[in-house]
Amino acid sequence: MVPKGFLRYQVLKLLNEKPMSGSELMSEIEKQTNSHWKPSPGSIYPLLAWLQDKGYIKEADGQEAGVKRYALTDSGKSFLAEHEKRREEMRKRFRGFGPGPGFMGPMWFEFYPEEAKELKRATKDLAIAVWKFRDKLREEYSEKAAEEARKALEEAAKKIEDITKKLLE
């Protein structure tokens, strides 16, 4: 699962370090995600075109023949700083929710990726349900719904703890 805005942020961050081509960006992001995800050309090149249209990136000087590299503009650096500020605000806002960034992402169950596919899906479904529930409670708080959800989560946690105990025996 790739969070919304992840690709744009990664591209901006990488281009802030040095000029890169679309294929170099794809390879570097794949490397940084431990080969869990490699963006496709269909996601990278439209993003680069959009960033260029907005004035956040430009073609880098001193191009090699056949390779188009991009560099961040001053406007792009400001845009990246805004992204980083929002990311930090989100980290502060959701600190304590779950074991940390990416807790429901591709790193889960990486030792047995194929065998744990359904478990990973179920974990993701649970996390999404909790987030949707939290958002709905913010709109309109219900003591009854909060109590029902608390009981359901405690029951699920207890069952998973019991399964873990059996595995340890």
What does the average pLDDT come to?
83
> Would you tell me which CATH topology of the largest domain applies?
Arc Repressor Mutant, subunit A
SSE pattern, N- to C-terminal: HEHHEEHHH
Uncertain residue ranges? 98-107
Helix content: 55-70%
According to CATH, the homologous superfamily of the largest domain is Winged helix-like DNA-binding domain superfamily/Winged helix DNA-binding domain
Strand percentage lies at: 5-15%
Strand order of the largest sheet: 1-3-2
CATH class of the largest domain: Mainly Alpha
Topology (elements, then pairings):
Blueprint: H1 6-17, E1 20-21, H2 22-32, H3 41-53, E2 57-59, E3 69-72, H4 74-93, H5 117-139, H6 143-168
Antiparallel strand pairs: 1-3, 2-3
Outline the structure in words:
It is a single chain. This protein has helices at residues 6-17, 22-32, 41-53, 74-93, 117-139, 143-168; strands at 20-21, 57-59, 69-72. It is mainly alpha-helical. It has 2 domains: 6-93, Arc Repressor Mutant, subunit A; 117-168. The protein has a 3-stranded antiparallel sheet. α1 (6-17) packs across α4 (74-93) and α2 packs across α3 (41-53). The chain is elongated, with a radius of gyration of 21 Å. The two termini are 33 Å apart.
